[in-house]
Design a protein that fits this description.
The protein is an alpha+beta fold. It contains 13 helices and 8 strands. The strands form 2 sheets. Strands 1-4-5-8 form a 4-stranded mixed beta sheet. A 4-stranded antiparallel beta sheet has the order 2-3-7-6, with no helix packed on it. The structure holds flavin-adenine dinucleotide.
Length: 424
């Protein structure tokens, strides 16, 4: 596989100040807040500003990875709209860029970066979550079309996605990692039934997806038939990196393009409105203690100090990962470290908020601690250590890939998938 995402050396291209100046001049010349958002994004794409770290052939400038973050935040600072938020931009696009083929890069990257197509991730199944390679949804080629049958679950935003990143089994005669193919599945078709799941925090951000003779055009294979595992690992690595979702701050009433970008972000982040609570809200702990009148309690003060220390250390870990990326490193083990740190922090937040509020931490509605936010934190924190690979799986990755410990015993790794007993 050619790793197109790191094709450019970290030292190539202009320095940060030069890039800022070039971008400001270009925005000054081209930005008109009254234009349609899609028109603006097409210009960004044509000029290479949408994803400057990508190769010139694929909408970029071949710049080092830091250029993406810099240009993204500069566009907002200059009052212009950036590329779309969401798993299309953050997961599907880099996977398609890295694994191809060219025909899909040509057909799928542009609609993602313009915001014409939204995506969801159809990986997990009732019998395959941590053991993702044990998935049993099948895809069989019938002439010019793949026919898909099976069930996916926990699929965030599948209820309003146009396309799905689908992992399906195309060969059961080989070991489980080798018979998987990664598809771009059109979601809006009779064979795809999406049912929303209600969560214990009252939100409904993920779904069950039932696939019954769903159809996929023959050429919608990301990477190669039977090589879907490699592409899936790329998506998972990006997912760990993007677990901290950034909402762009578009000011209201500033013109058509920004209104459209804000509506798009509102729509997207409606699904994720509980994610800050999932991360534990360390930013609210001091305010919570003061408002509950326990800011002087020495035990609570110690717990808060410990929590803030953890929060700072976690932020530095994330910063280390960001710097590694800006130097051109592919997302790797630091994603697992960052994800574990985020889980520890979220759990500790839940504990400290509960210490402060006592039993009333579970109350919602008027008069409840922080108007129900504390209850939402307690109900949401467990999701932090599951989404994007559980804590135990991150520890396995770190043990094997970083510490070089002996690998976990995997008795089903080398036998044909058809000979394995499945739990689904
Ligand atoms: C907020 C949220 C959003 C999500 N969004 C999506 C999405 O958009 N698309 C998607 O496809 N999926 C999504 N998921 C699903 C998520 O990827 C899975 O829940 C996760 O991979 C765990 O799988 P599982 O739920 O089947 O748990 P299991 O794999 O059944 O794990 C159960 C327990 O066993 C432990 N365990 C399992 N295997 C091992 C092992 N080898 N060593 C040690 N311990 C082990 C686990 O750590 C866990 O504690 C989402 C989940 C959450 C919480």
């Amino acid at each position: 596989m050619t790793d197109l995402t790191t094709a450019s050396p970290a030292t190539a291209g202009p320095d940060r100040e030069q890039l800022r100046a070039d971008l400001a001049a270009w925005v000054h010349e081209h930005w008109d807040p009254q234009m349609a958002l899609s028109h603006w994004r097409r210009q960004l794409l044509e000029a290479g500003w949408a994803v400057p770290s990508w190769p010139e052939r694929w909408h970029g400038m071949g710049l080092p990875a830091w250029a993406d973050d810099l240009v993204g935040s500069e566009l907002i600072r200059l009052g212009a709209a950036g590329i779309p938020v969401g798993s299309g931009t953050w997961l599907a696009a880099p996977t398609i860029l890295a694994h191809g083929p060219d025909e899909l890069r040509e057909r799928l990257l542009e609609p993602i970066l313009i915001g014409e197509q939204t995506w969801c991730q159809l990986f997990s199944e009732p019998g395959a979550g941590s053991d993702l390679a044990g998935l049993s949804t099948s895809a069989v080629l019938d002439g010019e079309t793949w026919v898909v049958n099976g069930q996916k679950v926990w699929n965030t935003s599948a209820h309003h996605a146009d396309m799905g990143m689908l992992l399906a089994r195309t060969d059961t005669s080989v070991p489980k990692h080798q018979g998987i193919t990664y598809f771009a599945l059109p979601m809006r078709q009779p064979g795809v039934e999406v049912r929303q799941l209600r969560q214990m925090n009252f939100h409904a951000s993920f779904n069950e997806v039932f696939l019954t003779d769903a159809r996929i055009p023959k050429d919608n294979v990301i990477g190669e038939v039977g090589k879907g595992w490699a592409a899936a690992l790329t998506t998972l690595a990006y997912e760990r990196r993007f677990s901290a979702l950034q909402r762009p701050a578009y000011s209201p009433g500033a013109g058509r393009a920004l209104d459209e970008a804000r509506a798009e972000a509102d729509d997207h982040f409606a699904t994720y409105s509980w994610y800050p609570q999932r991360a534990g809200r360390p930013d609210l702990v001091i305010e919570h203690a003061r408002s509950a009148g326990v800011g002087d309690d020495p035990v609570i003060r110690q717990a808060i100090a410990r929590l803030i220390t953890l929060w700072r250390a976690s932020a530095w870990t994330a910063e280390r990962a960001r710097v590694a990326r800006s130097r051109g490193a592919r997302p790797g083990a630091e994603g697992s470290i960052g994800k574990l740190a985020a889980s520890n922090l979220a759990r500790e937040c839940g504990r400290v908020h509960s210490m402060i509020a006592g039993a009333s931490a579970l109350l919602t509605g008027p008069g409840s601690p922080m108007n129900g936010v504390v209850a939402e934190i307690l109900m949401s924190v467990p999701g932090q250590s599951i989404a994007g690979g559980t804590d135990e799986i991150q520890k396995n990755i770190l043990a094997e890939k970083v510490l070089g410990l002996p690998p976990e015993v995997r008795i089903d790794k080398d036998v044909p998938f058809s000979q394995i007993r499945h739990r689904g």
